[in-house]
Design brief:
Elements lengths: L1 E2 L2 E4 L3 H12 L4 E5 L7 H4 L5 E2 L8 E2 H12 L5 E4 L3 E6 L5 E5 L4 E4 L1 E4 L5 E4 L7 H4 L18 E5 L3 H10 L5 E6 L8 H12 L4 E4 L1 E7 L6 E6 L5 E4 L2 E4 L3 E4 L10 E2 L2 E3 L12 E3 L4 E2 L7 H19 L10 H4 L5
Parallel strand pairs: 1-9, 2-3, 2-10, 3-6, 10-22, 12-13, 12-18, 13-14, 21-23
Antiparallel strand pairs: 4-5, 7-8, 8-9, 11-19, 15-16, 16-17, 20-21
Helix pairs in contact: 1-3, 1-7, 5-6
Keywords: FAD, Flavoprotein, NADP, Oxidoreductase
Protein name: Ferredoxin--NADP reductase
Cofactor: FAD
């Protein structure tokens, strides 16, 4: 059984930054994530999407943020168990926890930090009978590499920020971009809506409202979509890719059975240190909930910082924390 100071469930931005803050206190971390790579949603869903609210970076691609975090935590040599889901926890006689993954990997630590973002998530799929036939063969729910759509005819479905943002981003990459939404008004940020209509007026994207894709056709790969406008007959359009962006359906997975206090699919915490109702288990980032909660990456960083200070007292109850500044000591001084 592997041993560490803190088991971090989730290797997204918040989980990775936890390693840095723990390293400053000379605490070792082992990260567990069901995805096969680090980065969480930043790597899996929108690695090429710019993020604008990270302090010190007017704009940074989500994938680059993960690369920077990995470089930042490298001196503290964290361990990773990727592609395995955190399945069970057991409190041992010495008060520490044993975590068992879906592959049977066992890890022991006195503290567990749940930083699982939205938890286990899956895309919300449109109710099209044969959509599974074309998944990864013309139908994608996540855009990992925009260059994949170069010179292709792409249809994006949805009315939220993701649908608008990706339609705008693909306008200069794909041969043709069509954005379709079943309502006549979008739910996205006003700036994105304005930009999309500007591109439509310039002939760079097509926007179809009050209509939806109700069918898919193609012998082997996807070849055309069936469109159903309101109160009108259906018609078909040829394309290469159909990307329905209707959001994610979050699920806590096995964590829901760990006897934590849960409200609306999120873990309740004490904002003093983001501890849960189970001593030694913390929840940070998008997976937790409290009054005034904001699901922002920078808030997750703050929560991780305070959580580690509290965790130190559990791991080393005989020691006193002395706050040291990286500007004085550098990383080598920790």
């Amino acid at each position: 059984m592997k041993k560490t100071d803190i088991i971090i469930i989730g290797a997204g931005p918040t989980g990775l930054f936890t390693v840095f803050e723990a390293g400053l206190l000379r605490l070792k971390c082992h990260l567990v994530d069901s995805l096969p790579q680090v980065g969480g949603q930043c790597s899996e869903i929108y690695p090429k999407k710019p993020i604008y609210d990270i302090p010190g970076f007017p704009s940074i691609l989500a994938g680059d943020l993960i690369d920077n975090l990995m470089q930042q935590i490298a001196p503290f040599k964290p361990e990773f168990t990727l592609g395995e889901r955190a399945e069970e926890i057991e409190r041992l006689e010495d008060g520490s926890f044993k975590l068992t993954t879906s592959h049977g990997t066992e890890i022991n630590a006195p503290v567990i930090a749940i930083a699982g973002g939205l938890g286990c998530f899956e895309p919300r799929k449109p109710p099209i009978d044969n959509i599974a036939k074309y998944e990864n063969n013309g139908v994608e729910y996540i855009i990992k590499d925009p260059a994949f759509y170069a010179n292709k005819r792409v249809w994006v479905a949805g009315g939220g920020d993701s649908a608008l943002d990706w339609s705008i981003h693909l306008a200069d990459i794909a041969q043709e971009v069509t954005l379709i939404h079943r309502r006549n008004k979008f739910r996205a940020a006003p700036d994105s809506v304005s930009k999309a209509y500007e591109l439509a007026e310039a002939g760079k994207i097509n926007i179809i409202t009050d209509a939806q894709v109700v069918g898919l056709n193609g012998i082997q790969a996807l070849e055309e979509v069936v469109i159903q406008p309101k109160a009108k007959a259906t018609y078909t359009q040829q394309l290469d890719h159909f990307i329905p962006l209707f959001g994610l359906s979050p699920k806590l997975g096995p964590i829901a059975d760990w006897k934590l206090n849960i409200s609306k699919n999120a873990i309740e915490v004490n904002t003093l240190d983001y501890s849960t109702n189970i001593p030694g288990i913390y929840a940070i980032g998008d997976i937790n909930t409290y009054e005034g909660k904001l699901k922002l990456i920078l808030c997750g960083f703050h929560e991780a910082t305070l959580m580690v200070q509290s965790a130190f007292k559990i791991i080393h109850p005989e020691k006193k924390i002395t706050l040291k500044y990286t500007t004085v000591n550098g990383i080598e001084g920790f």
